[in-house]
Amino acid sequence: MTRISPNPDQQKLINSTDGIYLVNAGAGTGKTFTITHRYANILEQPGIEPDDILLVTFTRNAAEEMADRIAQQSPYDPVQLQDAPISTFHGYCYQLLRRYGHETPSDLGINDQIPQSLDLIEDELRERTLFKTFASRFEDQHPEYEQLFAAIDTPSSLRSLVAELAAKGVIPHRDGWYRETGAALDGNRDEFMELFERQNQPNDGANGPIQSDARSSVSGWENTEYAPDAPTADEIVGYPQVHADPVEQAFDEDREELFEFVHDVYFEYLQHTLERNYLTQGLMLAFAFVMLCENPGVRKGVQHQYVMVDEFQDTNELQFKLTLLLSERDNICVVGDWKQSIYGFQYTTVENIQRFDERIARYKAELNRGEDRITYPVDDIEEIPLQLNYRSTESILSLATETLTVPATSSESIDEDAIEKELTPLKATNHVDNSRTEAVTHEDEPEVILDRIQHVVDNETYSVEVRDEPKTTDEMSSSEKAAAERERLGKPSYDDIAVFTRTRSFARELLETAQEYGIPIAYEGGIELFDTDQAKLLLAWLRICEANEKRGWAAVLEDAGYTLPRAKETLKTDAYPESMIAFRDELRECETLGGFARTVFDEYGYDGAYANGLLRELTGMYDATLSTWSEAIAYIESTLEAGSTVEIDSSPGDDSVTLQTIHGAKGLEYPIVFCANMNRRAFPHYGKPSSGTIQYQEPIGLRQRSVYDDSNGRPYVYKHWSYDLLTGCLPSDYDEERRLFYVAVTRAKRHLFFTAGDNPSPFFTELSVDSTEIDPSVTARELEEVDDEAFSVTVPERSRSRRLSVHEIMDDSIYDDVDEGRGTEFGDRLHQFAEDYVRRKDVSPVGSDQEHVKTLLDSLDGTLKPEITAILPLDLEPQITLVGIIDLLVTTPEQVQIIDYKTDRGRHAESEYRKQLSVYYHVVANEYPNRDISIQIFYTADDETVELSPLTITR
DNA sequence: GATAGCACCATTTTT
DNA sequence: TGGTGCTATC
């Protein structure tokens, strides 16, 4: 497998430096090898420096790997390449925006600047919380949208709508939509009508035409409650088709108010985030886009002579346009494989690569409206396919092709010819095809998998490459090559095997079963830590302590082995065992959430990875700030709701099976692969997430799923008839699930297993591999192998840095009775009042503390900025970043005051507050290097300001 | 034997 | 939410 020289296709790409290239790089075709050589080759041209070549990758790891490998192939060493633009879209655009984009918001009619200390939020949970605050304020401030809000069940679903629109390149301006990007919201009528007509074709029955798919989707029409203005079933349902008139009427419905609403939410959210110094990744890209469009000087300054984009199938519309804007000339090379596009849920567009010619022309035209931004021609595109596969055997490649046409449901019909046309066939370079491809089922699927793993390990039948020698050289004849390859084969061990699953939950189940048997499996990826038994018990006890909630008791009793009737009886009479009551009372004494959790886990003897991980999560960012149980409950609930995951770090020894989701396996390869969990509903997966009331979907555009109506005197939220009708006329699409299947299969070098439980999915049954049901018999290995610490949870280390709340550097003792029983809610309300007052909201002070704050605010000179996020990165290894919120910043041209409100009656915590405010001091000092900066505590109870002197940072 | 209609079931992926 | 599988009906 060692290749020193590129094959002819690869060489062609390496030599093709100038021009637009679309590289179809299938699985295992040596993509990274070729890209890095091409990069090195461009560098060899006279006058070209690393800075002239932009290389964009999908992940930070990939960027690092690229840079490393380029360093091996070019005269530049890794240090010299460190500042080269080899980066992700996000990383690169963030740099650009921070350097040149301060004024960009004004191009959208926003007064705020992009600050130097911009907080780029990666933690979805945090953003959800911030968005919720925004949404409730928005609702208060816009009574004109009352009816729309009434129809929206979860306002926070608007958050993902905004993210989706940003990814599609739809950006709001104070007066309408930025550069007509809002046109996408209309949808595409022609495209829709075409789909509709196909979906409304009668199907072929045994005795002639039977009802069309569109017709069967509206069969329950009269039983659904639609608003009074909805057409009746008679008006819609014909036979064997639906009538076209109401469908067209639905498409053309008046959506002006909806568009305005979404515009206002989106625009005001941008204002909101900038006021608070934060942005999400997606919104940041949108600003970078605006900056490059609006500022020719910056654009021309940053453009590169050569641009390469890796994993192009995972780009969204905005990223494609950024690619064009960042190119100085028509030297653009995009590399990818449409068959491996599996991130649609992140709003990527597979058409970017599948319809590259069409898209690049369209995007250029859009970008050039009003001003010539893209000055190079984009119609001369050369396609270079890489067809030699260096990974898999011929048998596996042929199965992989098959995955692209497996039906996902019993009724789905697939246009195999159309897919075949798009396909660039891969050719195996292996000479020995010893592949075993097997499909097995049993109702205990984890056991079957473990059984097969034990069967495979050390089994000659499943030989894999175990030696590098003897090497194959070009001079050898093909039979000599085959002989050499055969010599490299040998019995597989655990670490030659990978198990892929569609869902994380199945991976967790398998992991736990494997541990019972002592089979070494290492899970790689995130798990839903808050969905574990440990977390559920913790939540139950929190609920019991907070309000003696029956929900909590029920969970605790169930865990204690109560039968359902007995648990019910106990719940009814509140006759809980004394030991439990006593434990509850003990828990109520706990002062911090960390202490609470530790007590629960000790009681239940949980000391494994999940418990430890939970402890670290809970004592991390939130221990100091979550001082009441109800806050802790809300936190855990929202974490669960957000499906937040924590990375698991498993190390059951060097020789272990790898377990991961298919998404996590992308880009990797293993000698033996198990495609597990091929069960109904699991893979292919269906059942859309119950997302928001307002949906964006191509080609119907922005639509409302439910509507408020009181026209018949009864206020009610109805399902929206036109949404139901339109979506019923769209085909369901399982292409991405098939591509996921393709990705899984193409990870395998030699052998493939497909496994399912007692309800296999069509992917499993329709594949040409015959399945056998086997009775699993798994041999438990020696107990010593089973170790509680066999895997451990690591706190997410985004970019290897850790984020600490400033509260964590303070001594916990300050929370002892700080508020003399007034509670954090009192403080929260006061902070809210102060913020609202500064923002000139119509609020009046309640209580003397708030009066004092008002007097203080009235007396201050300068610009007042409330609630500023302060971020202080420390030069430590591993990197630690301190985060806090400055209550109030008062700026004048000469000086800056930092003010923090404290509701304490005493002064015993002042030394700790000095640490907190010192952090703010250093953040602000960075931002305003030439001004006098002071830090002050305002004690609201006593109406007293205390100025502190800042501490220096010890590094 | 074939078709339409209804009740039922189980519920993601992550830079 | 939408596919599956059972059942009523022709």
Write the layout of secondary structure elements.
Elements lengths: L7 H8 L4 E6 L5 H13 L9 E5 L2 H14 L4 H4 L4 E3 H12 L18 E3 L2 H18 L4 H6 L5 H11 L4 E2 L2 E2 L11 H11 L3 E3 L2 E3 L2 H5 L15 H4 L7 H8 L4 H20 L2 E3 H14 L1 H7 L3 E4 L7 H9 L6 E5 L14 H4 L1 H12 L13 E6 L1 E2 L4 H10 L12 H7 L4 E2 L8 E5 L3 H12 L7 E2 L12 H11 E2 L6 E5 L2 H14 L3 E7 L5 H15 L2 H10 L4 H10 L4 H11 L4 H12 L4 H11 L9 H14 L3 E5 L6 E5 H4 L4 E6 L18 E4 L3 E4 L1 E4 L6 E4 L1 H8 L6 H11 L2 E9 L5 H4 L5 E3 L17 E3 L7 E5 L17 H16 L8 H13 L3 E12 L4 E13 L3 E8 L7 H18 L4 E8 L4 E5 L7
Parallel strand pairs: 1-11, 1-12, 2-3, 2-10, 4-9, 10-11, 13-14, 15-27, 15-28, 18-21, 18-22, 19-21, 22-27, 30-32, 33-34
Antiparallel strand pairs: 5-6, 7-8, 16-17, 19-20, 20-29, 23-24, 25-26, 31-32, 32-33, 34-35
Helix pairs in contact: 1-2, 2-3, 5-14, 6-13, 12-32, 14-16, 16-18, 19-33, 21-23, 24-25, 24-30, 25-26, 28-29, 35-36
The chain binds a DNA duplex (15 and 10 nucleotides) through helix 31.
Give an overview of the whole structure.
This protein is of the alpha/beta class and 955 residues long. It has four domains: 8-101 and 295-389, Rossmann fold (3-Layer(aba) Sandwich); 394-525 and 653-686 and 735-789, Rossmann fold; 529-644, no CATH class; 800-948, no CATH class. 41% of the residues lie in helices and 18% in strands. The chain has 37 helices and 35 strands. It is globular. The two termini are 48 Å apart. The relative contact order is 0.11. The model is unreliable at 783-801 (pLDDT under 50). It binds a DNA duplex (15 and 10 nucleotides) through residues 58-60, 88-90, 122, 124, 205-207, 210-211, 216-217, 219-220, 223, 281, 314, 342-346, 409-411, 502-505, 525-526, 643, 645, 661-664, 680-682, 685-690, 732, 736, 740.
